[in-house]
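Lab channel / #folding
Pinned by the channel admin:
"Please post every new chain as: sequence first, then the structure tokens as a reply. Keep commentary short and put observations after the output so the thread stays searchable."

First post following the new format, from NK:
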Amino acid sequence: MSNDPQDLGYLVEAWEQSVRSLSDVVSGLTEGQWNRATECPGWSIRDVVSHVIGVELELLGDPRPIHTLPSDLAHVRPGDEFSRYCEIPVDVRRCHTAAEMTGELSYVLMRRLRMLRDSETAPETEVRGMMGRSTPYRHLLRSRAFDVWAHEQDIRRATGLPGNLDSPAAQISRDFLLRQLPLVVAEDAKIPAGNAVVFDVHGPLEFMRTVTVQPGGKAALDGQVPLAPLVRFSTDWETFARLMCGRIRPQHADVKVDGDRRAADLILAEMAVTL
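Reply from TO:
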């Protein structure tokens, strides 16, 4: 495997490793375990796998299922078209057996991998992504590696089988999430210009990054650590990822905070950039 996260082959192989790892974890589950809740709001293990299958089928060009959602799904927010969109391929599989789920996942993986390996699409070519939206091919591959890894971790936590926290897809996910931090600090939490916020993360993936809010309200991310940041967060990689993926509430997360507590709370409240 190439070590260059900009290389399309690296992105495809990272996606493949993570989805195969997910498949390995669910292959040994009993029927009852497929109904076990995950940290992904409202979704069981079956639902998470259904989501992965549904997205990859759509990217293969298969027609989406024609299905009317029940009106009592509390995690599907009224007016949120994206959550309803994601829920349809999930809800149609809620009656599927373990054998049906693992069989379909294996078949979809085989088809999608063949498609990706045969593709001659250039990195910046605009392609059809979720909801029919146009996106650069490299960005689509990167977002798929992140999405599958995040859901693999949902399943691993639900089954008590930790792993793959430092995999290639984990590294792609780290970089994907780090790119969101300037927006979280400057635009969402509205930290004033001239302030710096440090994120010190340890564990399987270790990194230290500083978000500095610049004049005009924009922010920059780098590896320089100032002497007196406004806030310094210290936590482990898994907790950091869970916070940014909306899997854990800030008040329940093991995060050490040094500095301005009010500013820290504002930032922590905005750290969930995806669900």
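NK: The chain has a mean pLDDT of 94.
TO: also worth noting, The domain at 8-164 is CATH 1.20.120.450 (Four Helix Bundle (Hemerythrin (Met), subunit A)).
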